[in-house]
């Protein structure tokens, strides 16, 4: 398994694009960003700042760049278009033009995946924490609201512990969908360092 950690999404995407010439590739993420484009018939025609993922990235050379993508476009809540790259959908021509969620890839495998590990689960002071304002999974709405009464970061109580467990499950799903290579962009330096150290890398 080719497992790589990236400091920015541009380099990760460029390397995935090379593999896309011969293999199946996709971008995926947990619900760390709200689904702003839900209901849009043409999310790919929206301006970058209106997309679900519009990330400001501080590059190593000091330059600030924006990286933007919509969540997976699923007309009629049919995820098969994203999974299969069905003709007529944007992802058929560019397999890296959308970000898939856990529901889109559960039970399916791809040759290479690029995971956006953003700010819903971070490594802080020797443990995993979940900044609850960054958890946007609709199916966890009531649980997150209950956890927020315990504190802004989980796990601060039993509800927060349940949120953390569900986040772990989501990351476990996404991290086990790749057959040949798992590429991970982690913008948070402390989290990125911990993941690298866990793999025996500096």
Overall description:
This protein has helices at 9-19, 80-84, 90-93, 102-105, 141-148, 158-174, 189-198; strands at 2-6, 25-29, 53-58, 64-69, 99-100, 110-116, 122-124, 127-131, 153-154, 178-185. The protein is α/β, with parallel strands linked by helices and 202 residues long. A five-stranded parallel β-sheet has the order 1-10-6-2-5, sandwiched between helices. Strands 7-8-9 form a three-stranded antiparallel β-sheet. A two-stranded antiparallel ribbon has the order 3-4. A hairpin with a 5-residue loop joins strand 3 (53-58) and strand 4. Helix 5 crosses helix 6 (158-174). The model has no long low-confidence stretch (mean pLDDT 93).
Task: Give descriptors for this structure.
globular, 202 residues, five-stranded parallel β-sheet, single chain, alpha/beta
H/E element sequence: EHEEEHHEHEEEHEHEH
Q: How much of the residues is beta strand, in percent? A: 15-25%
Largest β sheet strand count, sense and barrel closure: 5 strands, parallel
For the residues shown, what is the average pLDDT? Answer: 93
Which structural class is indicated by helix and strand composition? alpha/beta
Kindly state the percentage of residues in helix. 25-40%
Could you say which overall geometry the principal axes of the C-alpha atoms support? globular
- Spans of 5+ residues with little confidence (pLDDT < 50)? none
**Continuous helix count:** 7
Strand order of the largest sheet: 1-10-6-2-5
Number of domains: 1
| N-end to C-end Cα span | 19 Å
Rg over CA atoms: 17 Å
Number of strands: 10
